[in-house]
Amino acid sequence: MKECTIKHNGNRSYSCTVELTLQVIGGKWKPVILYHLSRVDCLRFGELKKSMPNITQKMLTQQLRELEQNGLVNREVYAQVPPKVEYSLTTFGLTILPVLNSLREWGDTFEQRLESV
Amino acid sequence: MKECTIKHNGNRSYSCTVELTLQVIGGKWKPVILYHLSRVDCLRFGELKKSMPNITQKMLTQQLRELEQNGLVNREVYAQVPPKVEYSLTTFGLTILPVLNSLREWGDTFEQRLESV
DNA sequence: CGGAATCCTTCATGATACTG
DNA sequence: CAGTATCATGAAGGATTCCG
User: pTM, whole model, 2 decimals?
Assistant: First the structure.
């Protein structure tokens, strides 16, 4: 048993790097966004929105901005009218996929336990 | 690109099992609780609380109850005065540890990126 | 089309006091 | 010692409107 020290990094604070990871990929939408981006080269904003019918425009924009700031997602703006913006995973963003798989596999097992009751 | 369907399981809803996992181990305290429980055979409530100086009694109780309901944590009450309650990981609870390690390792890498700026 | 801005609701978390 | 109960607060998420 040891005391927890709390690290501060910019405006972020966490007591272990597990929490740090959860801050980057956690929340209601980020895992799904990353999942969709992982299945294709890139997606336009509208395409991403269509594949997540329940997300609001505000949340999608906000979550994409955070993923971009953390270096997982690339945002490419085409200078044209009407606007066209494409999102894709960065090289670093690809490294989160095994982690998501790990989460998904455990979730599958847990789901089976739920349904076997 | 495919539409998301939303699954409902009891009072829980999720569009993929990644979210399901995050519902079980996410939040501000659960990863840390699981970490501490993984380092020893079992811990009394007070010991756990001492190792997490910033958690309130209410949150610790609440999070432990949820982990217990989801089958990750075992709660053993000794019929004595003053009360003694010991918490430990269940066999199923042990299966979450590789997932937490995966999260921690990625978090370590991400932390290095943060600090190399 | 892909946003930004504003306001509002809900939920997670916290502070405090009390108890068998 | 290991809780419960109650009230308060802040952050996350959502609805709506407007814009280049």
Answer: 0.94
